[in-house]
Amino acid sequence: MEGMKAMRKESDSLGSRLVPAAAYWGIHTQRAIENFPVSGVAVSSHPELIHAYALIKQACARANAELGGISDEQLALIDQACSEVFAGAFDDQFPVDVLQGGAGTSTNMNVNEVIANRALEIGGYKRGAYDVINPNDTVNKSQSTNDTYPAACRLALVFALRPVIRSARALAMSFRTLARRSKDMVKLGRTQLQDAVPMTFGQEFGAYASVLEDDVAKLTAQIDALCVVNLGGTAIGTGICADARFRSLVAHKLSYVSGLSIRSAGDAIAATSDMADFVDVSSQLKRLAVHLGKTCNDIRLLASGPQSGLQEIHIPARQAGSSIMPGKVNPVIAECVNQAVFTIFGMDATVTAAAEAGQLQLNAFEPVTVHVLLTGMGVLAKAMDTLRVNLVDGIEPNEELGRYRAEHSASIATSLNGYLGYAGACHVAKRALREGRSVKEVALEEGNIRAEVLDDVLDPANLTHAAEE
Description:
By secondary structure, the protein is mainly alpha-helical. Helix content is 59%, strand content 7%.
């Protein structure tokens, strides 16, 4: 009997279910809990999606009230409930598994039920008193999962993109600072892991900053496309069960409550089934991940050693590197970020497969798409933060070794091409390697170029500025 007192009974078209009395969700959510015990990851793990959905429902309620679809009392109660859900007060009330069938219907109904029951509670009614405020007829009025879920996903992605952009921008600034600090430190460049021509540490670190800055610009550009929604299209984009004025009005209301420039899709039917914008977001995140992975690969190579590797940079020692080799320290931060990068590659593969797998007027696989995208964004933002704080900010270039290698590399003979021709410069380089001498010593001995000219053309610092002339 004590257990029964903690439950309430709800009914739907399939029958009845007992729902925990303390829960704000209802029978639709309860069925979803039973139907999808798959990943063990609940929708509550993505607060961005919950909060975005609250704004969607708030905008819809305001539009419905203005059009006479719901009463002022219903609006007031729903509006307050939506504000509380948006503020995160009910994040724990979304227990449905992220891997759910139904194209997001379970999440939509979870949101409808939580908002309805919280609105009822605010108004002094009992939870489940759906004759006053109904999850379907009131909270979901003029809507379908098929227009609200994609819209909520888009807003959630905008919310999640912002931290990624901030973290990428901060990491780029860290590399810029490092580049300025090492702008006059000469080193040897490398192509295909072989000695190339001289450059500076500043140029090397500045290149990492440049690609990240470009990624920031491209990710920021994704926000505008995500602000185009199919709200008002309802089931398949035709707008059935919605006032003809609802579509434009709800976009205006959503712009107001979200602070974003929300626009209605030009073709709501196309927008209901198309996931190309999600593919674009995934692609840009993968692009960023590719750059991060390449950068970390470079850092691990440049820091390799400390005695038999390149040893051109020193990175912070963060933890003991071995349980058996005393004193060994590994590039664990870069390795961690590399693994985050691999995760993003998997995310992109999932998004691609899900976007292609839709049929006819709907794509049923948006739940897994938004799940992996939001998860990937969280991983990327945190990976970039730890890379910046625990590694990049502590990098110290090995200036002395860098200059020595730049001055004594046979590849510096490249600067003699204009004086000796390619074959002549190649002869000098090969002789320098064979005899274990510097290019300058060999060139002086052969006497084809004056000493003062060699002093200028073989100075590594001068060679690093060739592209700027």
